[in-house]
Amino acid sequence: MIAVDQLSVTLGARQVLEDVSFNAPRGVVTGLLGPNGAGKTTALRALLGLVPEARGHVLLGGVDIRSQAAAERARQMAYLPQGGVVHWPVDVETLVTLGRHPHRTSLGRLTAEDRAAIKRAMAETDVLHLRDRPVTQLSGGERMRALLARALATEARVLLADEPVAALDPLHVLSVMTLFERLAAEGRTVVVVLHDLALAARFCRHLVLLDNGRVAASGKPADVLTPKHLAAVYGVRLVGDLGAAQFDFAIPPE
Ligand SMILES: Nc1ncnc2c1ncn2[C@@H]1O[C@H](COP(=O)(O)OP(=O)(O)OP(=O)(O)O)[C@@H](O)[C@H]1O
After folding, report:
1. What is the mean pLDDT of the chain?
2. 220 — alpha (psi -120 to 50), left (phi > 0) or beta?
3. From the CB of 41, is ligand 1 less than 6 Å away?
């Protein structure tokens, strides 16, 4: 669904991405991995067409994103940026409503479809009870969930999420990753930047491992998260099996 072909980005004097090629298929969650500074955020921003310095091609459903107007891209691709910073003291529901902006032809009244998408996104991220709270007064994890709700409210066919679970507690990590799995199973393309390798092994059926601006490995988790790759890219030794954690968490039944 997304095909990245020979993407290169030079920022200032620094080559941040070099001949990066990978696919993010529909129907599965793709994990974008790599150490700090490997180029993950730059790659996501280039997928969105937000890096003017980018060379190479990003195809969405076979169409080069450069041939699409920005408004069309905004309807097709939703983005959750890293860090969860919000400067305006707007309430959560107003923030989530911004996710509908690419669909709206005027700033007039919301349609029933808009309202349903906003409510669904807030329910899926467990922020309905926070809807009237100023975003600037939320905890880091609550704010990240509100920002995720904004991205989901767009109902784009592609979701790009940069470290979406870094600030979340174990239950919300599981519910957000499970939500990504479901969105992918429904036919969307979901790309998630993760640092938690065990989580990547568990929820991502496809992985792209970046190292110093290049693709070190891509494919199935078993082929990417090998002791050799982990040692070469992260400088860590794999102890045990990433797919067989000694203990685990699960979402309790209702
Ligand atoms: N505007 C810029 N000018 C010069 N170098 C930049 C610029 N933006 C990012 N970089 C560099 O590009 C490299 C990749 O940055 P990027 O944010 O894509 O990494 P990342 O893999 O997302 O890292 P992290 O895991 O720390 O979030 C880093 O070394 C960073 O310092």
Report:
1. 92
2. beta
3. yes
- Coil, strand or helix at 15: strand
- The two tokens of residue 11 are 């920022």
| pLDDT over 60 at 246, yes or no | no
Amino acid (1-letter code) at residue 239: V
Q: What DSSP string runs through 98-139? A: GGGGGG-SSSSPPPHHHHHHHHHHHHHTT-GGGTTSBGGGS-
ipTM (interface predicted TM): 0.97
Domains of the chain: 2-234 (3.40.50.300)
Residue 116 has pLDDT above 90, yes or no: yes
Nearest CA to ligand 1 atom 30: 37
CA distance 252 to 102: 36
The number of beta carbons lying within 10 Å of the beta carbon of residue 212 is 15
> Which pair of tokens denotes residue 182?
């479901």
Residue nearest to atom 5 of ligand 1 (CA): 11
Report the residue among 20, 40, 191 best suited for mutation to probe ligand 1: largest number of ligand atoms under 8 A from its CB. Answer: 40
- Provide the edge-to-edge strand list for the sheet that holds 55-60: 14-24, 2-11, 55-60, 63-64
Report how far residue 56's alpha carbon sits from residue 39's, in angstroms, rounded to the nearest whole number. 15
DSSP 8-class letter at 91: B
Q: Does any ligand 1 atom lie closer than 6 A to the CB of residue 42?
A: yes
The response to whether residue 16 sits with its C-beta less than 6 Å from ligand 1 reads: yes
- Tell which residue, 108, 172, 185, 105, has the closest CA to residue 144: 172
Dist. CA 53–CA 11, nearest whole Å: 7
Give the tokens for residue 121. 């996104």
